[in-house]
Amino acid sequence: MKAYIFPGQGSQAVGMGKDLYESSSKAKELFEQANEILGFRITDLMFAGTDEDLKQTNVTQPAIFLHSVILALTTEGFAPDMVAGHSLGEFSALVANQTLTFEDALRLVSKRAEAMQKACVAQPSTMAAVLGLEDEIVEQITASISETVVAANYNCPGQLVISGSNEGVAIAMEKLTEAGAKRVIQLPVGGAFHSPLMEPARVELSEAISQTPFHTPIAPVYQNVNAAPSTDIAVIKQNLVAQLTGPVRWTQTVINMIADGATEFVEVGQGKVLQGLVKKVDRKMPVSSLS
Prior knowledge:
The protein contains 13 helices and ten strands. By secondary structure, it is α/β, with parallel strands linked by helices. It has two domains: 2-121 and 196-290, Malonyl-Coenzyme A Acyl Carrier Protein, domain 2 (3-Layer(aba) Sandwich), CATH 3.40.366; 125-186, 2-Layer Sandwich (Alpha-Beta Plaits), CATH 3.30.70.250. It has a six-stranded mixed sheet with strand order 8-7-2-1-9-10, with helices on both faces. Helix 2 crosses helix 7 (102-122), helix 6 (89-96) runs antiparallel to helix 7 and helix 7 packs antiparallel against helix 10 (199-210). The longest helix has 21 residues, at 102-122. It is globular, with a radius of gyration of 18 Å. The two termini are 20 Å apart.
């Protein structure tokens, strides 16, 4: 049973999607439709922009989404048994399992990116990767700090990302290093994703999701906030909203998908980030890409 997984922010690269645009008339049609929906030519930035262009949240998120989703929609016979996406990638997964239409999901992704960018401007914040510590130790240390800082991305065993205010993350980085972390690296991100500081964005996205049609999925989606499979539309909506301020439980997601019968993981989109994380959860698990 194949588990299709969809990458999130950080997997972008200049040139992404260009070959697809040039080789498939259906892909070209979808990319042009996206340009119209977004109100600017995101394809110009994806195919020939700069790294800085692609780092802007309002560009990065739609770009990664478009590449993944158009790959899935133009692959003959694409019919997933189970899907999951890392953060932003959850929206791609929901198109892949037919919960959301391409157009509606793109509008939500654009709204999400804009709302997150506004929240980042309103309160400067950051994230940091913690390598070589048990999750429980990271949780205990972040919980002991009075400034805002939380465990945000449980990426794989021994790799956890923390998120919060600049002050909170700085204090946590020092304490985690003292606790024996192999490395603690501040990440070049725009703000504290998957933390309480994204609450204004969560409110905006919740309103947009409530006004968007959701459809019965053809395969379960394993969602970030609880790593559990769902086909219930109400639950999917609730978890999709909670994702903005809640953690990405990717390690447990992979474990649960394997327990439920996954025999191969296929990453749909740019790069190999998720393939690497799957291998760190289960080094014997076959991984491949649709790119």
